[in-house]
Amino acid sequence: MDEVGWQDSKQKEPQQSYMQPDGSFGTQAFLDGLDAIFNVGKARDQAEPYLQQALVDAENAGDDAGLLTVLNETMGFYRSQGRHQENMWMIQRAIELASRMRIEGSEAWTTTLINAATGLRAAKKYDQAEDLYRQALASAAKTLGPKDRRLAALHNNLSMLYSETDRPDQAEQELRQAMDILETSSTDPSRDLDLASTHTNLALLLMQRKDNPQALREAWDQARTALDIYRTGHLENSAHYASALAGFAQVCYMTGRFGQSADTYRRALAIIEDRYGKGSDYYQITKANLDQAQAAAEAAGDKDQSKQADEAASSQPKASSDRTPARNHSSDNDRHGSQPDIQGLDLAKAYWEQVGRPMLEERYPQYRGRIAVGLMGHGSDCYGFDDAISRDHDFGPGFCLWLTSEDYRAIGDQLQKDYEALPTEFMGFGSRTDSVRAKGADRRVGVFEIGAFFESLTGYRQAPPEGHPHEWLLLDEATLAAATNGRIFADPLGQMLATRQGFKAMPDDVRFCLISRRLGMIAQAGQYNLPRSLQRGDGAAAMLSINEFIKACASLIFLINNPLTVGYLPYYKWTFAALRRLSRRMATRLADLTEQLEDILRLASAACYGGQGFGEGGKGARPAAERVTELVESICARIVEELQAEGLTNSTETFLEWQRPYVEAHISSDDPVLHSI
């Protein structure tokens, strides 16, 4: 069955230590670094030393919350590698630490219980695992809503325990309960990754009833549905796709389609080897299944091959040559056949390491312990959202060198000349294609004085003081996102990291003020003006109301999760790319809203204009308009639940304008700029 556990999506450059300049442990930096290791497929070699160093750093910093995060990630890693004996110590440490922190009744406690239970279950310590799963269910009832997708994950994992301890009826009950939660909370079940995993798990469970033809037919349908979801949602790059393939392969085997089973196992095995390595339990089990299917196919001969080929064409994802690629390539970019499929941040890192650092060490040896290096600022590559389409401007080999004021006065001009003299071709890419807006004083790569770099982005050389809320409120979120994104590859003095961290550390009073403002706009645009505009038949006004509602909700999600931890919402072009990435993180608050917001956008044309001219048949606006208003109210109710969970309100009022006084009561400053009238 497909486990719901350690995530394989994270994004930032790994370093040996994430101790901050003030001696604290950088939890977000640690998570981002771990993401980067998995994104480049180096988990087998780099993940364990990285996790071990993080354990030391968090402990040395005395950061219990950070240490608990690292322990949770380490439990997941050891479990995925089949290193169960080593994992026992991590599980024990995590439970003891969480108990010592007295976090019972919190989401963090629930998460720790789930991860520990799953590790114990993988180690076949079923009694202990079941006890922790039961505790997790009790904790989840208090900390998670009835439609929270994490609750579905918990039922999914508990089902696996029941299945492995020969309790199929209870296992099926848990799985169907998980599926109900997911189907209820999903705005598009045809693209829902978690739902796909649950379909696979149910297929595997139903196959245990070998003598029941009806169960086997349903298993086939469930397994095919899972693969259809991956294909429809273009989710084949997910590590969980291997589980869906292996599940389908097992159904094929049980129903006598041995050749198709072997072919599908082979595809699953390639993904498993890439993600988890040959030493994992996952690989060994799948390899044994492949060998068994191959032997059965050879014994059966070719008599069923034509039938299997026809069924494979209708039930399996298309071959790689027909599949929609992960990134779209324009004809211009296709001319460079030698270019690797690499994102700008990774290209910048490689260019620095192979070209920039040798130059710096040769010509400026006395400064190499003083210069910060990385890539930050404007541009999709700095957010990690770039693809082949993005390469037509502001893309190519390049990085930033950040100097203190003193060092910049001493060597800045000459270092810039030496930077410009570096080879312009690298890894098959030609010279960087800078747009008109990214030249001269507005250049995005090269040599910068630290304060001047941040001033060019924000107007401030360093973050405004906490006691200057009016200055913070002048900085919109897109500006702050540009000043805090990207990666810092090296920072010997810690000054660059400290300055960036200052901009990430939005004062709580400012954050509560902005949360209040977003609640006001969500209520005004979505709950008040949108239905009135729809009633008037003013499609243009309704469309603009939807736009304001979506923007306010997107901003609220980032503010609720705290920019210090998750960063800021970038400018509109990358709003949903950022929301999707955030929603995939474990324990993200309001993660379920992203799909609902996209659903509203999909329905917007029909709701506002009746679908005319949009290929929807002109069937009238009413059904779509009703659905949009239902989604708006559902989102608002969900926001109130989260405000209550965060302790920001004790009111159940779902018209969000009336929630603002409760939120603003948490603002400690009397400065009128922070309070609504």
TrEMBL record:
Q: Which Gene3D superfamilies match?
A: Tetratricopeptide repeat domain
Please state every residue range assigned to the domain named DUF4037.
472-575
Q: Where is this region: Disordered?
A: 1-22, 296-341
> What Pfam families does the entry give?
DUF4037, TPR_12
Record field: transmembrane:
none
What InterPro entries has UniProt attached to this entry? DUF4037, TPR-like_helical_dom_sf, TPR_rpt
Provenance organism? Bifidobacterium mellis
Composition bias of kind Basic and acidic residues appears in 300-310, 320-338
Q: Could you tell me what this protein is called?
A: Tetratricopeptide TPR_2 repeat protein
**Entry keyword annotation includes Acetylation:** no
